[in-house]
């Protein structure tokens, strides 16, 4: 039994049940091992959770970069709004994204500082990457963003709001919110033509 197999089983439990609700016994059962065998790979439930979370944060960063690389030829507005729509789908279809979002917004009380120690640098890096992208502008329309740093921060704030709606309200409500707020965001960050 490998640590990656244990982490994959743990991902399902942590994503569905949260840190407190996930049981090492159930994770072990899913792997076809006894609970003490987990301790050959991880010092504790906390250790398993934090190693998994670190891995998931790294993969989420890679997935975000891949989205923007794969879609770089799209118009800037379509690229950004498309990312938010992509994230909604990912939450419903991908256990890692579900785990990532839930733990980012609802970290376990006992591990709050450790989790937020991963969340804030992640968000800061995403904001920085986005500011660079927005400063480049759009291949067809050129420099269309008024203040790239401000627009990046506003986008992260918008994304947080959509993520909260995904978590609490579901796909239909989050889609409706995105459709209503997007024109306000876009008209607020673009230059008048």
Radius of gyration: 19 Å
Query: Which descriptor suits the 3D outline?
Result: elongated
| Main sheet: strands, sense, barrel | none
Class derived from helix and strand content: mainly alpha
Attribute tags:
single chain, 193 residues, mainly alpha, 8 helices, 79% helix
Written description of the protein model:
- The protein contains eight helices and no strands.
- With 193 residues, it is mostly helical.
- It is elongated and about 65 Å long.
In short:
The chain has 8 helices and no strands. With 193 residues, the chain is an all-alpha fold.
Ordered list of secondary-structure elements with their pairings:
Blueprint: H1 3-21, H2 24-31, H3 35-38, H4 45-70, H5 76-93, H6 95-105, H7 112-136, H8 148-189
Helix pairs in contact: 1-2, 1-4, 1-6, 4-6, 4-7, 5-6, 5-8, 7-8
């Amino acid at each position: 039994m490998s640590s990656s197999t244990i982490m994959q089983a743990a991902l399902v439990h942590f994503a569905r049940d949260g840190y407190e609700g996930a049981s090492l016994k159930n994770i072990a059962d899913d792997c076809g091992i006894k609970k003490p065998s987990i301790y050959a790979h991880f010092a504790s439930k906390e250790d398993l959770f934090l190693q998994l979370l670190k891995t998931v944060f790294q993969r989420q960063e890679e997935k975000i970069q891949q989205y923007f690389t794969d879609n770089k030829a799209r118009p800037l507005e379509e690229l950004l709004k498309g990312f938010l729509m992509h994230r909604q789908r990912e939450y419903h279809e991908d256990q890692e994204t579900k785990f990532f979002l839930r733990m980012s917004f609802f970290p376990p009380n006992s591990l709050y500082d450790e989790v937020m120690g991963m969340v804030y640098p992640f968000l800061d890096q995403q904001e920085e990457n986005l500011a660079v992208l927005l400063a480049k502008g759009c291949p067809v329309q050129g420099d269309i963003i008024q203040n790239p740093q401000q627009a990046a921060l506003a986008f992260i704030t918008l994304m947080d709001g959509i993520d909260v709606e995904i978590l609490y309200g579901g796909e239909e409500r989050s889609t409706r919110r995105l459709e209503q707020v997007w024109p306000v965001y876009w008209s607020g960050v673009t230059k008048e033509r």
